[in-house]
Amino acid sequence: MKSKNLDPDFRIAVVIPAFNEAKNLPSLINELRKIQEAEFQLVPIIVNDCSKDDTAAVARSLKVDLIDLPVNLGIGGAVQSGMIYAYESGFQYAMQLDGDGQHPPSEISKMVAAMKKSGFSVVIGSRFLEADGFQSSSLRRAGIRYLKGVIKFLTGLQITDATSGFRLYNRKALAAIAANYPDEYPEPEAIIYFHKKKLTIGETPVIMRHRQAGKSSISFINSFYYFWKVSLAIIYAYLKV
Amino acid sequence: MENYFSNRIQIIAIVVSVLFLLYISRLIIKGKLREEYAIFWVVITFILILFAVWRRGIDIVAELVGVYLAPNLVFTGAIFAILIYLLHLSIVVSNLHEKNKVLTREMALMKKRLENLKKPKKADNHETN
């Protein structure tokens, strides 16, 4: 396991789900391209989730791989599409990086280091392991604490940032995502799914930023729906064989 | 006088039920309603016609199952049937949702593969092995 992770060509497919992120994409891709590490190489794959703005045109002009969904699938569907493409293209590693600029590419090296060190199949970038950078609103933090408790109860795992979409996967996890991934608010539910698939999961501290432009997928009004949807999804994901 | 009114409502009930059945048949013939979803409506309409014609029927059935007031049986039965049918529709929608998602994804991936074929250099770039 460990020797495999020390593969010299540590090529990572960076799946960027983008819904109306035309404004954020150029700077994000620029930042990704600036990262020239010896230990790993990043290949961005933008998944345009049927944006209403010119996300697709911007992605094309940036000369990166683009999966252009003809119908809006939601973040989970977009991520899964990108992951399937990465899987079929033979990538050994893939990660999710949100198109809104919340996940600074400069933090990727921390996650790669964590994966190499631990050999985990899933490495989650957590805002809360070291309380640094953007910490989200108090209501959301309460929600995240609740999710932490539920996940701990069901799996015994200590996940401090279950809603973080900033995640690095190895090929085993990539295969699991290609087979099945939730459509809507996928992050907490996916942790349970990975655990059921017997994938090893770990966290590493990262610093996140405020969204640069656009709106979050979870508004205050939606948070009630979010709570019930995610709670149910977690329970059913746990009960599913 | 009382008899006259109750006859009239019986005739109205029969006419409405038959019209409903004809309308459903028309939808099926025109291909606007698939047979598997029509079964429910056809069966329901037959039941409506049956009890419209056989007026004592509803009282007899109510007595059989131990319901004191026949209209209560009608309401209970109807609400139950509607709930079951709504659940069925939710299942149908979920199924469609899933199929729609897979189709959308496959289409986007197909489009990407086609682009890669048109630009062979770029496609090669992504093969790791």
Topology (SSEs and partners):
The complex is a heterodimer of chains A (241) and B (129).
Chain A: H1 2-5, E1 11-18, H2 25-34, E2 41-48, H3 55-61, E3 65-68, H4 74-88, E4 93-96, H5 108-118, E5 122-126, H6 138-155, E6 167-170, H7 171-179, H8 186-196, E7 201-205, H9 223-239
Parallel strand pairs in A: 1-2, 1-4, 2-3, 5-7
Antiparallel strand pairs in A: 4-6, 5-6
Helix pairs in contact in A: 4-7, 6-8, 6-9, 8-9
Chain B: H1 2-29, H2 35-53, H3 57-65, H4 70-118, H5 120-125
User: What is the CA–CA distance across the termini of chain B?
Assistant: 91 Å
Note the total helix count of chain A: 9
Please tell me the total number of domains of chain B: 2
Beta strand % of chain A: 15-25%
Strand segment tally of chain A: 7
Please tell me what the overall shape of chain A is: globular
Q: Mean pLDDT of chain B, rounded to whole units?
A: 85
Estimated structural class of chain B: mainly alpha
- Find the CATH topology of chain A: Spore Coat Polysaccharide Biosynthesis Protein SpsA, Chain A
Write down the secondary-structure element order of chain A: HEHEHEHEHEHEHHEH
- Radius of gyration of chain A, CA atoms, in whole angstroms: 17 Å
Name of the CATH first level of chain A:
Alpha Beta
Question: How many distinct domains of chain A?
Answer: 1
Q: What is the mean predicted local confidence, pLDDT of chain A?
A: 88
* Count of individual beta strands of chain B: 0
Instruction: Sum up the overall morphology of chain B in one term.
Output: elongated
Give the proportion of residues in helices of chain B: over 70%
